[in-house]
Amino acid sequence: MDIKTSNIANLPSKHGKFRIKAYKQDNQEHLVIMSRDFEKIESPYVRIHSECLTGDTLGSLKCDCQNQLELALKFIGEKGGLIIYHRQEGRNIGLLNKVNAYALQDKGRDTVQANLELGFKEDERDYSVVDFIFKDLNIKSIKLITNNPKKIEYVESLGVKITQRISAITKSNVYNENYLNTKKEYFGHFL
Ligand SMILES: Nc1nc2c(ncn2[C@@H]2O[C@H](COP(=O)(O)OP(=O)(O)OP(=O)(O)O)[C@@H](O)[C@H]2O)c(=O)[nH]1
Ligand SMILES: [Zn+2]
């Protein structure tokens, strides 16, 4: 696995004083956002957050990503931990394809149907960089912030202990009800 890493830099933010470290795998650049002293915590809070430009940055109401990111920033800011900002936009189909998937959703498809119609699997994410990051930061035990059973399974398969799962449920709205429903019914998310 050819992964390049950056040095660690300070990042004061409105959510807390963090440090950041970047990882580059092929053409994807990921970011780890760390609370100041997470190394001293036996089992830090961790969120593996999948990039969602429309949600994270623009506050799209079609998904729950921005709310989840803010929840995670608050958790690690207050209690200590880290966020792996996993830059696999649109469950790793990329931004352009995600916008095409959204256009299909405008015509009535759900989030899974739209991906399949575009020739992708329902979820194309690959978490191998997460394994690298856990080893790089010497993380062996975590409290994982997620509703996604696949992420739990993956982390456990790496031999990293999950001492607690923190639910990442945030307020739904009229635009993301169907999306959340599909996550629950199709992907088995704990919602
Ligand atoms: N292809 C596609 N990707 C989407 C769509 N809506 C959100 N995403 C992407 O889905 C990813 C977020 O995944 P989710 O399934 O919402 O949640 P999760 O990360 O699996 O699980 P949690 O840890 O519980 O949040 C981000 O990369 C979003 O860009 C969509 O309609 N189509
Ligand atoms: Zn989103």
From TrEMBL:
Binds 1 zinc ion per subunit. Residues 9-166 form the GTP cyclohydrolase II domain. It catalyses: GTP + 4 H2O = 2,5-diamino-6-hydroxy-4-(5-phosphoribosylamino)-pyrimidine + formate + 2 phosphate + 3 H(+). Zn(2+) binds at C52, C63, C65. InterPro entries: GTP_cyclohydro_II, RibA, RibA-like_sf. GO terms for biological process: riboflavin biosynthetic process. The keyword Transcription regulation does not apply. The keyword Metal-binding applies. Keywords: GTP-binding, Hydrolase, Metal-binding, Nucleotide-binding, Riboflavin biosynthesis, Zinc. Signal peptide: none annotated. It is an enzyme of class 3 (hydrolase). GTP binds at R47, I48, H49, S50, E51, Q68, E89, G90, R91, T111, T146, K151. Its EC number is 3.5.4.25. Its cofactor is Zn(2+). GO terms for cellular component: cytosol. Gene3D superfamilies: GTP cyclohydrolase II (3.40.50.10990). Pathway: Cofactor biosynthesis; riboflavin biosynthesis; 5-amino-6-(D-ribitylamino)uracil from GTP: step 1/4. One of its GO terms (molecular function) is GTP cyclohydrolase II activity. The active site is at D123 (proton acceptor), R125 (nucleophile). NCBIfam families: PRK00393.1, ribA. Belongs to the GTP cyclohydrolase II family. Catalyzes the conversion of GTP to 2,5-diamino-6-ribosylamino-4(3H)-pyrimidinone 5'-phosphate (DARP), formate and pyrophosphate. This is GTP cyclohydrolase-2.
